[in-house]
Amino acid sequence: MTLDYEVASLVNGKEVTANLWAALKSRFRGKGLMAVAMLTSKLWQYMILTENDISMQIQDMKNIALKLSSLGYPLSDKYQAMAVLQALPAEWGTI
User: How many domains would you assign to the chain?
Assistant: First the structure.
């Protein structure tokens, strides 16, 4: 992984992880809303495929929810459950 010069200059001289994280967080703080929108869209457009491992796909959806939470937009368990139900294959509608 490489960093742009601008980002690398933020971490230069930071010896403590907390200081490094604070510098990165302050630099990118205002840019999270687009990421939130993209992750939310990805969550609601997610389609679970029967040919793939269902539990892995649900875990992928949970990871999206975790990312949203880390950006300051936590999702309730009910909201996450609705997203999973929405993503289930149409042929499972009679189950």
Answer: 1
Task: Name the residue range of residue 72's domain.
Answer: 5-92
Residues of the chain with pLDDT under 70: 1-3, 7, 10-17, 20, 25-31, 94-95
How many Cβ atoms from other residues are within 10 Å of residue 68's Cβ? 21
* Pair of tokens at residue 8: 């690398």
* φ/ψ (deg, to 5) at 91: -70, -10
What Å distances lie between residue 50 and 15, 64, 82, CA to CA? 47, 20, 18
- Tell me, yes or no, if the pTM score tops 0.70: no
Length of the chain equals 95
